[in-house]
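Page 42, continued from yesterday. The earlier attempt failed because a stray header line got pasted into the input along with the sequence. Redoing it now with the clean sequence only.
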Amino acid sequence: MLHPQLDAEKQYLAAFRKSMKKFTTTDDITFSVVNYSKPFTFGRLNNDIIILLSSLGISNEKILVKQQEYFDWIQRASEDYLIAIDLLSCLGHFQQAEAVLLKGLDDQNVQNHIKRFQASEIASLRNQENGKFKSRMMIHKSRRLFGVCDPFQVLKEGQVYIRILVGRKGEATPIHGDVIVVRNPCLHPGEVSTFHLQLFC
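This time it went through. Structure tokens are written below.
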């Protein structure tokens, strides 16, 4: 969306860069939304990102610790209602997350939903085509972000500004600390911006 100061003549609602056009279809120029920002959408480490992090010096032991934390988190979702809400929310099943709040974990239908999503999340770690295991673990101190431009050049080169929701009441806070920013898909170590790798330390 255009900042009002960038559209003095009030002709446009939004501006798009050439890099944002991912493919060409037909003469139909209908605008289509592929994805959009959602609250509490965690980032994932997949095989590609793990390989790149390893090439940047992150040890296998630290990555395995993250993986075990992820497995433990999934397992505890049927016992802890906050974890159940987090799991269901980050998988996009908000109606079931609401049911946890309204009915509690003792409700049999709620338990069935949670167990189904637990099994689905674990099953997604196996490639259906060749049966090999793949990594796609969620990282809870992460968010899937959509970048926006800085037309007024407030930030200096090498700076990023990240503001995320941190609580369930909708409060947002800027991040002051070390972060890792990874493009997706990522193909080489240059697509992992290393604002210090202390997330894994």
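Notes: The two ends are 38 Å apart (CA to CA).
Reminder to self: strip header lines before submitting.
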